[in-house]
């Protein structure tokens, strides 16, 4: 079994519960100790994108989702127990759904935005870890 930082395991729990704000904090704590690990930054940006979208910051969601997509590319197809092909497909799907003609909506109008797909992250054994 791989020995990942405790915050990494907690990230999966919080992501799958939809607590994207906490996901950011957990991954940032790990990433700050190894800023060369752009894989973590990619997952962090993806989580931030979903958080922004849920609060009406559509342009921020687009920006962060594109950044997350960029950062995970060199780690595909799998890294640190994550199937990045699934993550890449999810990001592509989100980018096709996030409106391009809206910058921001007030929080009380976010239910008017198209809903992003459900996505659960799994930590798998036998995937590459540095």
What does this structure look like?
This protein is mainly alpha-helical and 130 residues long. It is 54% helix and 3% strand. The protein contains five helices and two strands. A hairpin with a 2-residue loop joins β1 and β2. The model has no long low-confidence stretch (mean pLDDT 94).
Key traits:
5 helices; two-stranded antiparallel ribbon; 130 residues; mainly alpha; 2 strands
* Main sheet summary: 2 strands, antiparallel
Overall pLDDT score: 94
What sequence of helices (H) and strands (E) makes up the elements? HHHHEEH
Q: First CA to last CA: what distance?
A: 14 Å
Low-confidence sequence ranges? none
Backbone CA Rg: 14 Å
Category by helix and strand content: mainly alpha
Please sum up the structure shown:
Helix content is 54%, strand content 3%. By secondary structure, the protein is mainly α.
Give a topology summary.
Layout lengths: L5 H12 L2 H12 L6 H17 L3 H15 L5 E2 L2 E2 H14 L33
Antiparallel strand pairs: 1-2
Helix pairs in contact: 1-2, 2-3, 3-4, 4-5
């Amino acid at each position: 079994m791989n020995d990942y930082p405790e915050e990494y395991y907690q990230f999966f729990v919080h992501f799958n519960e939809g607590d994207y704000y906490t996901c950011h904090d957990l991954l940032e704590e790990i990433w700050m100790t190894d800023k060369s690990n752009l894989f973590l930054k990619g997952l962090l940006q993806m989580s931030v994108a979903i958080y922004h979208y849920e609060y009406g910051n559509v342009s921020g969601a687009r920006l962060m989702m594109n950044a997350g997509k960029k950062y995970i590319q060199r780690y595909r197809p799998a890294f640190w127990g994550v199937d990045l092909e699934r993550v890449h497909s999810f990001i592509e799907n989100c980018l096709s759904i996030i409106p391009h003609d809206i910058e921001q909506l007030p929080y009380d109008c976010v239910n008017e935005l198209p809903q992003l797909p459900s996505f659960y992250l799994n930590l798998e054994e036998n995937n590459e870890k540095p």
